[in-house]
C-alpha cells in the first residue's frame, strides 16, 4: 500500500460514531486543524506552537449560551416561528388551512435554525478546548477534568467527532513535541510523558495509536521529499525513535494497534532493530552516569531502566560489561602514558601501580556486588572484568598489558619479599588483562629472577651468605620470601657458575687459584656435582675438543711428540674427569671413523673398500690408540703379555677354534710382537651404525683376507696374491672398532663357511639321495671349509629335505602317494608338514576318502576317517568332516546311478560293488529312501545284492535305501532270480 494514499480524506459523510480514523472529517472541521511540522536539524522547541482560533457567526452565539439556555432558545425560536407562520397564513391565506400551512413552514425553518444552533456546539467546544490549551504554559498541564469541564459547558460529549478530533490533534501535537529530531538522542522519559498525557486526555489507545501512525506518515512523506543522504538517514532515525517510543507507550498491544508492516511495508526485523537500537542507546546513556564507585541503588535503577526499555538481558549484560571495560581502559591508558613517558622517573612506577590498584579495587567492588543477596534486582553483567576477547586482542595491545603486569610485579617485589595479598592481586590482574598463565609466569619468573640475582649478589658480596650456618637454608629462605621456584634458582646458580668458569677459562687453562675460587662458589651456591661436571664438559670440553680435533687432523704421520704433549696437558690442566675427556675424544674420533666408513662404502669394488677399511684400522692404531693413552696418562711401555690381553678380541664360544678363518685372528706372541701396536677398543662405532652395516663391513674385509689381492695382467689373465696371517690381526682390530661382540664375529665367519659348504653340497646332493660315498665327500668338504659338524649336518638336512619335499609334492599331485605311505614316511622321521603344503594335504585327504567311497566294500570307519587320517595329515578335523559329508552326499546318488547302469549292462559284480559304495556313503551321512523312475529296477538291484550274501545289517539298510517294502522283500527272497528278465541268463552276469 502506498502510504500517501492513506492521507486522502473520505468524501462520504459518516455518523461520528462510525468513523474508523480521525482522517475522515467534514470540510468545516478540517479548516481548523493545525499541522505539526518537522523541519530537518531542528530541536523540539522549534516546532511552531498552535495559535488561537476565532469564532464566527452562530459560533459566537453558541459560545455565549449555556446548554440549558441554548435548548430554551431553540424552543423559543421554534415556537415563535410556528406562531409567526400561523399568523402570516391567517393574514394572507384567509383560511385556517393557510394559517396551519404557514405555521408548518415557518416551524420547519425555525427547527432548522435550532438544529444548526445545537449542531455547531461540538465545533465551538473544540475551538474552546484548542484555545484553552494555547493559553497553557505547556500542553502537559492539560487535565482530563479540564476537557470534561469544557465538554459539559457546551453540552457535548468527548466522543463527538469535532471535539474528539481536537483531542487527538492535541495528543499528536504533544507526541510530536516530545519526540526529538533525528539527530538527537532519546532521553528516556518520552514514553512516560506521553503515557501520562494520554491518560490526562482520556484518549483511547486505538485513537492514540492512529495519531502515532499519522506522525509516521508525515515522517515517511518527508523522507520521500528530501533529496540528500544525510537527511534521509536523519528521518529514518526519527522514524525508528517513533517506533520505539510507541512500543513503550502501548506495550504488547502495539503489535496490532500499530501496523507498521502493513502501512509502511516494514519487515519484522526492521521493527525489532528499531526497538533494539534505541533501547541500547538509551541504556548506554544511563550507563554514562555509572562510575567506579557504583552502588546498589544505581544497579537497581539500571535494572528498572532495562525493563522499561524492553532491553534483553544479554544485550544489557554486554553493554554493562563494555562500560566497565571502558572505565578500566581509562586507567590502563593513564598508566601506559606514565609508563611510556620519556621523562618518567622512579615515582612514575608508583603512579602506574596506583592506577592498577584502582582497577583492582573496582574489580573487587564488582565481584562483591555479584555475590550480593539482592543480585537478582541488579543490572545484568555485574561481575569481574576481563579484557580477553575485546579491544586488547592485538599483539601491540597485549604487549602493553604485559608491560603493566611487569611493572606491578616489579613493584610487588621491590622490598625483597612478596606478600600474600600481592600474590592474589597479581592473579586478579592477570585475569583482568586476559593474559595466559604461561605469559604471566614468564614475566613473573623473569622479574623474580632479576630480583633474586640482585639480593643474591648483595648477600654474597656483603658476606651474609658466607656467615650463614646453612647455605641451603639461607637460599631457601630467599626463595620463600620471593615465592621463587628453587629449581629456577638452581638454574640461576648454574648460570652464575658457568659465567665464572668461562671467565676463568679466558687464557685456556685453570690454575689452582681458579679451581679454589670455583670450589668456593660451588659451596656457597650449593651446586651439585652433576651440574659442575656438565659445565666443565661444555666449557672446558669445547677447548679440549679443539685440541683433540687438531690431534686427529694431524693424521697417521703427524701425531708427534708435541701433539702428544698438548693433549696430555689439556687433559690435566682443564681438570676434566677421565670419563668426560674420553667422551669428548670419542665424539671426535667416531666422526673420523664414519668418514673412513663412507669412503669404504663409496669405493668401486670390494678390493678398494677393503683398502679404505685398512686405512681406518691404521688410523685407529697409530693415532686413536695414542690419543687414548695420552688422555689416560698411560705409559708407552707395554709388555707382550699385555698386548695379547688388550689387542685381541676373545670369546668363550667353543666354535672359535673350529673355524679356520676365525682361528687365525687369535695370533701367537711372535706375530703380535711383529705387529708392535694393537689398536684401542674403547672408542667404537657400536652406537653409530646398525648391526647389519657393521657385520657387512667386517665381512667385506674378511673376504679380502680370504681372496687376497687380484692383479690383472695382459691377455686378460689374473694373478691372486694370498694374504698372510697378519691381515687377520687387522681383521680382529676392525671387529673391535666396529663394536662387534665375539658372537657377532663368530656368526660372520660361520655364515661364510656355511655358504661355501652349501654351494658345493648342493652339487653333491643334486639327486636328493644321501649315500655313503657322498657322506665321506661331504665330511672332507666340511673339514676343508672349517665348518662345525652340527652346522654342516643342518645344511645337508636342508638340501635333502628340499629335494625330498619336491618329490613328495610330485607324488601327491600324480596320485602315487596314499595314506599308508604317508604314515610310513612319518615313522621314518620325515617332516611332512614342511615338505607338503596344506593344500596338497587337504587334496590327499579328499582323494583318500574318495577311494573309501569307491572301494566296493561298503565299509566306513568313523574313527579312521574323522580322527586318524586328519591327524596324520595335520589338517583341521572340523573342516575334514565337512569335506567327508559333502563328498558322501554326492557319491550316494552317483552310486545308485552307477548301480543301475551296471544292472542294465548285466554286470552283477559291478552292481554289488556300487551298492556297497552307496552303503559306505550312507554310513558317513545317513540318507532317506532313494527314489527312481523304474521301481522294478530297484527290485532287481535288491535281488542281486541279496544273492551276494551280505550281512543282515547291510541287507536291512539296503532295503531301506531302495525303498523296498517288507512284503516285497520277502517275495524277492523266495523268488530269487525269477524276477529278472527272462532274457537275462545267469552266465551273462559272470565274468
What are the SSEs and their pairings?
Blueprint: H1 27-30, H2 58-64, H3 67-93, H4 96-119, H5 121-135, H6 144-154, H7 161-178, H8 190-201, H9 205-225, H10 229-250, H11 254-257, H12 260-264, H13 268-287, H14 296-308, H15 313-340, H16 346-370, H17 395-412, H18 420-433, H19 437-461, H20 464-467, H21 471-482, H22 486-504, H23 512-525, H24 529-553, H25 555-558, H26 561-573, H27 578-602, H28 606-632, H29 640-647, H30 660-663, H31 669-675, H32 691-707, E1 709-713, E2 717-721, H33 726-737, H34 742-764, H35 772-785, H36 789-814, H37 819-827, H38 832-835, H39 838-853, H40 862-873, H41 877-904, H42 908-924, H43 935-947, H44 952-962, H45 966-975
Antiparallel strand pairs: 1-2
Descriptive terms for the model:
single chain; 991 residues; mainly alpha; two-stranded antiparallel ribbon; 45 helices; 69% helix; 1% strand; flat; disordered C terminus
Strand order of the largest sheet: 1-2
Spans with pLDDT under 50 lasting ≥5 residues?
1-47, 68-72, 638-654, 713-720, 977-991
Mean pLDDT: 75
| Radius of gyration, whole Å | 62 Å
The count of strands amounts to 2
Number of helices: 45
Structural class: mainly alpha
* Helix proportion: 55-70%
Fold and architecture overview:
The protein is mainly alpha-helical and 991 residues long. The chain is 69% helix and 1% strand. It is built from 45 helices and two strands. The chain has a two-stranded antiparallel ribbon. β1 (709-713) and β2 form a beta hairpin. α13 crosses α15 and α34 (742-764) runs antiparallel to α35. The two termini are 119 Å apart.
